[in-house]
Amino acid sequence: MKTLTLGIPKGSLQEKTVEIFQKAGFNIYVSSRSYFPAVDDADIKLVLIRAQEMARYVEDGVLDCGITGEDWILENGADVLRLAELMYSKSTARPVRWVVAAKEDGKIRTIKDLHGKRVATELVGYTKKFFKSKKIDVDVEFSWGATEVKAKHDLVDAIVDVTETGASLKANGLKIIDTICTSTTKFIANKAAYKDQWKKKKIDNILMLLKGALEARNKVGLKLNVKETDLSRVLKLLPAMKKPTISFLTSKEWVAVEVVIEEKEVRRLLPQLKEGGARDIIEYPLNKVIY
Predict the structure, then answer these.
(1) Mean pLDDT of 24-50
(2) What is the rounded CA–CA span in Å between residue 61 and residue 180?
(3) What residues have CB less than 8 Å from 73, skipping those under 6 apart?
(4) Residues 30, 31, 36, 42: is their CA dihedral positive or negative?
(5) Domain 4-90+185-216, classified CATH 3.90.550.10, yes or no
(6) Is 147 left (phi over 0), alpha (psi -120 to 50) or beta?
(7) Is the pLDDT of residue 52 over 90?
(8) Quick one: which of 38, 90, 129, 130 has the most CB atoms within 10 Å?
(9) Domain boundary assignment for the chain
(10) How many Cβ atoms from other residues are within 10 Å of residue 218's Cβ?
(11) Same fold, 4-90+185-216 and 219-285
């Protein structure tokens, strides 16, 4: 029996990734004592791998496919297929940024001020490439963690660190002076594995379900009944993704309307729909939206 070996990022992205897989219909069970989570799909073998290493293992064929950030693909210089951008991170649905940051009250104002200085980061390889492209000679050292503290307490002149909102940097008295790259979560595959017809179909099906789960975030379904005489007025109120589904009821005067909308619109819309003639309004959650 064929098996697809899929890498799940261990660490900051792990919880959010498992959550999205569950929305997509895959129940994953992670044990703190194992690097091989169980999943209710006999065709899939899951492996927990740090996002920093994922692209390298996929490139080498140890994994058929996996999920990691664009930043770590660049850092490893990995030759892999980027099959999809999955817009999520550990806290938000926004991309993360790798930024150059220095003390708010320090002498470093621009990246040119770092010539001959020391910078700490986990993203060593790509940071070196960035400064080399700017023709700025800096000493880039690997940081094992607590990177913000090193700049705050003058252990280094600046840091290159990842941020979603910039709040943590600001809380540590640091200011952002440049951005070296923006990163989103990517679903990647080994080139040889994706040429295998069975594995390609399996990967494509998984991706379809994952995209459907992500598309369903912050959306809800609405069902409502409305008299035919009020239908045009109600339809004008609905900001539908597509044209609403309209069904005739046993009572010839009434029709049923069903639509998918952004959840944030519900609070504003419900009073307007009620006033416009809609009745029996039902709001329900969505797990997947697939076009």
Answers:
(1) 93
(2) 29
(3) 55, 80, 82, 186, 188
(4) negative
(5) no
(6) alpha
(7) yes
(8) 130
(9) 4-90+185-216, 96-182, 219-285
(10) 11
(11) no
The predicted structure's pLDDT at residue 92:
57
pLDDT of residue 191: 98
The pLDDT tens digits for 66-122 are: 999 999 999 999 999 999 999 876 555 678 899 999 999 888 999 999 999 999 999
Report the phi/psi class of residue 248: left, alpha or beta, with left for phi > 0 and alpha for psi in -120 to 50: beta
CATH topology assigned to domain 219-285: Alpha-Beta Plaits (3.30.70)
| Closest C-alpha among 132, 100, 104, 134 to residue 119 | 100
What's the CA gap between 199 and 86, in Å, rounded?
A: 20
Look up the CATH superfamily of 96-182.
Answer: Periplasmic binding protein-like II (3.40.190.10)
d(CA 141, CA 71): 17
**Helices 197-216, 14-24: crossing angle, 10 deg rounding:** 100
DSSP letter for 219, please.
E
Strands (E), 80-206: 81-86, 96-103, 118-121, 139-142, 158-163, 174-183, 185-189
pLDDT band per the 50, 70, 90 thresholds, residue 20: very high
Determine the Cα–Cα distance for residues 81 and 108; give it in Å rounded to an integer.
39
- Give the per-residue pLDDT at 240: 62
For residue 241, pLDDT over 90 is answered with no
Q: How many residues does the chain have?
A: 291
- Yes or no: say if 169 and 163 are a contact pair by the CB < 8 Å rule: yes
Cβ atoms of residues 82 and 74 within 8 Å: no
As a dihedral over the C-alpha atoms of residue 128, residue 129, residue 134, residue 138, rounded to 10 degrees, the angle is: 10
Regarding predicted confidence, which is higher, 242 or 6?
A: 6
